[in-house]
Amino acid sequence: MIVKLGLRLRIFLLFSAVAVASLCIVGGALYVGYTKALADGLLTGFLQAGIIAGFGLLAVSVVIWLLFDENVAKPLQHISSAIRTRTHADVDVEIDLGAAKYLGDIAPAAIAATGRFFQMQTGSESASADDKARIREERSQLALLLSEIPLAIVLLGPNFKISLYDGQAATVLGLVHVPRLAASIFDYFEEEQLRPALMTLGPHKSETVAQVAGVGCEMSFQLRLKKLGDAAGYMILIDEATTTLKPSESRGLIYDFSALQTGTEKALYQRPLRELSFMVFDSETTGLMPSKDDIVQIGAVRVVGGRIIPGEELDLLVNPGRPIPPSSTKVHGISDLMVIGAPDCVTATSLLHGFARDAVIVAHNAPFDMAFVNRYAKISGDQWDHPILDSVLLSAVVFGAEQEHTLDALCQRLGITIAEEVRHTALGDALATGEALCKLLPILQSRGYDTLEKVIEQTRKYGRLLKDMN
User: How large is the average pLDDT for residues 263-278?
Assistant: First the structure.
């Protein structure tokens, strides 16, 4: 197993080796002189001179290392993270020439190289603008066509996970729970009724009809099930006449066709980051003590295929069952009057648990939010055994521990704008964290941290940041 050491740690070890070697040389010289001094009766003064020389060399090594770390190692680390952010997250990060003044032409060369890259990228985007416009127009026409069909459409991969749904299907699925791309279809329709019907489809039978109940509700749906020709997957057409709701007019096609691809199913921690589904959430509370305070708002979004999925979100006001302190209301703007009739904390976090099924949980300072959630889980019985990533630690992996890692600082580095009116709202902060995650993922992959296991291994090195923050 190859251990990868950071630049600053390597430099520290180098100077440590220099200091140890210097002490060894002094020690050797002392030993040679010791025998002569012992014979001449000058032992005491000789030892004092040797000790002073040893500590002097050690002090010089430490001072030179500190200067080198501050003026060489840190600027190099900053330039490295800036180049990766510019290249892989499409963010025009500023490189501080003043901090890198002792690096000669390295910083200006990095600015020139990344600037040239942006020019080439801009030219490429301009050249393909017509193609992109044509694709958007075709997609819009297809979505419009599907919206006129009086059937809701869902496509499934061979593992029965949702790879596409239209606005009408979003309405139907929403009767059970918030629609979730890459979720199992059995989260919405009873598996013991739907799976046998799907299993009847094959080379000799490409279509069938089944009456299937929704999960956890009293509604029943008539489903027309089709095999996707030679492709590994299924199409479900839902007769919306079984519902009393109108089709959603605000959503087009939501899809991620990677779910249709066949292949071996890897263990979650060994799967590439691009294949994972993430549930990014944030909460607003009555105070900062998870053992005593309560949640007043939950916001969550889903990231699939490296992008935030439109419409797949939770935005819940929560009734804490207690007065909300005015000092907290000043921060998040939620008052007692606003939460009247809202679900209680246990019910709201159970809804969040369903929204997070089969996903990696992401939050900014996750221990704080998860402390509330886990407290309510003792009542609801929900098992929060999801893998958890903290965007504070992801920021430290990419930009270094010495940087500021608040949500505002992270968004500023990544070129993300948080509208003032949604800052310190649960959904607004969840969206900002989700956008940051989408930009951090390609940077992490470019550094070789391309699986969940590798990313978690790196974040563990910076766990002290969360302890200090909390």
Answer: 81
Give the integer Cα–Cα distance in Å for 144 and 149.
9
Q: Return the residue matching tokens 């992109």.
A: 132
pTM above threshold 0.85: no
- Higher-pLDDT residue of 452 and 152 is 452
Q: Could you report the per-residue pLDDT of 96-154, keeping only the tens digit for each?
A: 666 667 666 666 766 666 666 655 555 555 545 566 566 666 666 666 655 556 678 99
| C-alpha closest to that of 274 among 256, 300, 262 | 256
Task: Give the structural domain span for 279.
Answer: 268-469
pLDDT at 72 over 80: no
Q: How far apart are CA 277 and CA 163, in angstroms?
A: 12
CA separation for the pair 47, 416 (Å, rounded): 62
Whether residue 170 is found in the same domain as residue 202: yes
Place of tokens 């593992």: 159
Residue with tokens 């207690």: 322
Q: Looking at residue 289, which CATH number applies to its domain?
A: 3.30.420.10
The radius of gyration of the chain's CA atoms, rounded to the nearest angstrom, is: 29
CA dist 100 → 70, 72, 95, 323, 451 (Å):
10, 7, 9, 52, 33
User: Per the domain annotation, does 131 fall within a domain?
Assistant: no
Distant-in-sequence, close-in-space partners of 350: CB < 8 Å, separation ≥ 6:
380, 382
Q: What share of the chain is helix, strand, coil (3-state, %, to 5)?
A: 55, 15, 30
Same domain for 13 and 67, yes or no, is: yes
Q: Cβ contacts of residue 12 below 8 Å, gap of 6+?
A: 65, 69
pLDDT tens track for 357-394: 999 999 999 999 999 999 999 999 999 999 999 999 99
CB atoms within 10 A of CB 308: 19
d(CA 106, CA 141): 50
Other CB atoms within 10 Å distance of the CB of residue 19: 19
H helices of 41-105, in order, are 43-68, 74-89
One domain, residues 220 and 282: no
Last residue of a domain, one of 260, 288, 310: 260
Determine what percent of the chain is predicted with pLDDT higher than 90. 46
